[in-house]
Design brief:
CATH architecture of the largest domain: 3-Layer(aba) Sandwich
Radius of gyration: 19 Å
Helix content: 40-55%
Number of strands: 9
Number of domains: 2
CATH topology of the largest domain: Rossmann fold
Strand content: 15-25%
């Protein structure tokens, strides 16, 4: 796997999402300044990122969109399927399940975990819901490597520790409580309250 800065990987994902939308609209080629405008960044940044993955365009037509999408996928996608678990089957957990379903062929949600007896044992959005006490067993059995945390804030630290102990290698934390993981695991935290307050500040 090519070693890339975190922000570059983030932008490559955004490029692909925008490029796929452009393909749907019938566009076959795109210039760096057009892609930059769609994402509110500079053309220089776009060109740097794309050069880092070894892809080039032409002066006359820019980047061939299908080929650029393929190049991005070869860099940021895993060669084999990566399995995902969602911890917390509340409104946010269910929304994430619905959003991710079918979006990426190499990312598959294999299980959701909760403590609510009305949810445990049911199939939610096509995914079986297990009791959180079964988490370690199911994660190891299904070889799940990614977890998305949508549990109550006071449970996030313990659940994260249990996930890492079970063998999870990457966690996306949607709770407002910061967590720590072992150096061999990757953590991404999304603080919704901070994001809203940031928007509110600049909207004053």
């Amino acid at each position: 796997m090519k070693k890339l800065p975190e922000k570059t990987v983030e932008r490559l994902s955004q490029y692909r999402r925008v490029l796929l939308k452009e393909l749907e609209n019938g566009k076959t080629h795109i210039f760096s300044h057009e892609l930059a405008n769609l994402l509110h960044i500079t053309p220089v940044q776009v060109r740097r990122d794309i050069m880092l993955i070894g892809h080039t365009g032409t002066l006359r037509k820019g980047y061939e969109i299908n080929e650029l999408v393929k190049s991005i996928g070869e860099i940021i996608d895993c060669k084999t399927e990566q399995k995902v678990a969602i911890i917390g089957a509340g409104n946010l957990g269910k929304a994430i399940m619905g959003y991710l379903k079918g979006k990426r062929t190499k990312l598959t949600i294999k299980a959701v975990f909760d403590v609510n007896p009305d949810k445990v044992g049911r199939v939610i959005s096509g995914i079986r819901c297990y009791h959180i006490d079964e988490m370690q067993e199911i994660i190891q059995k299904e070889n799940i490597s990614i977890a998305i945390l949508t549990v109550p804030a006071d449970q996030s630290v313990q659940v994260a520790d249990d996930l890492i102990a079970a063998g999870v290698k990457g966690i996306l934390n949607y709770t407002p409580t910061p967590i720590n993981v072992q150096p061999h695991a990757y953590l991404e935290e999304y603080d919704m309250i901070t994001s809203i307050e940031k928007v509110a500040f600049f909207a004053k």
